[in-house]
Amino acid sequence: MSATTASATPRSDAPQASPAGSLRARTSQLWRSSRAQLAQAWAWPLVPQGFIAMLLIAAGSISPAFLPADAPLLAALPWFNSALARLLSTAVVLVGLVTLFEAWLRLRPRAGRRTAPTATWAIWSAPLLFAPPIFSRDAYSYAAQGLVVSRGMDPYQTGPIAVPGPFADQVDPLWLFTPAPYGPLALQLQRIVVELSGGHALVAAIAMRVPALVAMGVIAWALPRLATRMGVSRDHAVWLGVISPLTLLHLVGGAHNDAVMIALVVAGLLLASDGRWVVASVAVAAGAGFKQTAVLALVGVAGLAYRHAAGGPGEGPLRSAVDQRAYLRIASKVGLLAFLAFTALTVVTGLGWGWIANLSVPGSVLSFLSPVTMAGAALSWALGALGVPQEWAAMALPAVQGCGAVAAVLALGWITWVLGPRRPVAASAAAFMAFTLGGPTVYPWYVLWGAVLLGATLTDRRIVQCLVWATGWMLAYAALDVAVVNGLWILALAGIGWGVLRIGRARLDRVDEPLMGGSANDRQWSPAANTGNAPTGSDSRN
Predict the structure, then answer these.
(1) For the chain, what is the radius of gyration of the CA atoms?
(2) In angstroms, rounded to a whole number, what is the distance separating the alpha carbons of residues 165 and 421?
(3) Nearest of 540, 478, 473 to residue 122 by alpha carbon
(4) Helix, strand, coil: what percent of the chain each, to 5?
(5) What are the beta bridge partners of residue 331?
(6) Which tens digits make up the pLDDT trace of 94-137?
(7) What is the pLDDT of residue 23?
(8) Which of 51, 68, 160, 487 could form a disulfide with 171 if both were Cys (CB 3.0 to 4.6 A apart)?
(9) Considering the entire predicted model, what is its pTM?
């Protein structure tokens, strides 16, 4: 062997790192990086204020407004069910909501000022880790449905009443007899959480927050990267999609399935922006295994796949030329692959397609957050007040809801054909928004399907203004809901009035300039980078 060859050959006696040692080194590096990011976020102005606000909300969650009526904690500490405790818990929740909303508004990125680091979401979520599910009792239903699956029963044929005892007792009576409308992956994950909780009903409900936290970590990692690919500021994505009060209070605090669905959709769109549309389609199909509405994001996957194949940027002008045949071919492939992937996942879970018959379950309640339902109910009441026969007046509500459904379908058609191949991420966000606002039932976490994605696309300033006002309205709705359950609706009105005055006097709700630089007349967020007025040091914003 020549000297050259010998010198090029690795020495067999060179020390090699063991797999265990390599894993420890990577874990240590990840821990140090996470601590540095959390420390940087904590040093940011207003982040401690948001943390204190979340502490107040978590403290106020020990209340009949959030806990089941027969919760062991309320039985062991009956004082928490007293009138004074209800008053105090309602008051601290109201103060926490206003304080959190104010901190978020003050963190809005502007010319010369960035928003807080991405790790802020973890700091603000920390107080909620062991709190009961807040602003929704869905997690209690998840726990009961997980027990149904664990006992070998069909969750698509029977409701939580099939498992009488602590799990069924903590479910909202409205859903006690209704079968599950969720996808098969969600139900199997709920089963796993229940089995790991040791059979404790309240612990199982709180543990539903673990998948939501993992999902939020994925969103916090992927959304800013997707925004960068679309030519949008990372600060836009972090502020609007990651640290929004609605995102954290409902996805983390409420422990909703929607968190995992949104995370898989964002990850799918990020993969599609790299041309990996096959894996992206599977990711969105997996998201549909948690919430079936994830399929609406396939328009974005198809659009990104088309634009990547055409060599264009992530998003382009709305009037740019499109090869509709090429787009249709790619869209057909994406749709077919997603259907096959969803079918395979359904077979693996062993739960079947029973959810199809249960899709109307969420719409069985009258939702006054739904624009079409509010309009229909108002019209029905007005007709009755004018003396129109009751049976005729009652027809107004389903008629308006039907019009909303038709409008949503027409909007989805335009979004798919026109917006999808030109602005794919915007198309996905618009599809979710059209489906939500045109539907008969709206919950705050439904709005997040599209609102989170708006953080990764060039968004009209007026739309962001509407989102700010909608966030304030839904926080006020949550406050009122808590106060009504605790029998203190007058306190809620006073708290909401105080919040409106506090926010309004400082004009914090006004989105009166572009997010990142540009002139005051610029109607769109500028994708230009922004620096200034931030703590010094390295920016670990991932």
Answers:
(1) 25
(2) 52
(3) 540
(4) 65, 0, 35
(5) none
(6) 999 999 999 999 999 887 788 999 999 999 999 999 999 999 99
(7) 75
(8) 160
(9) 0.88
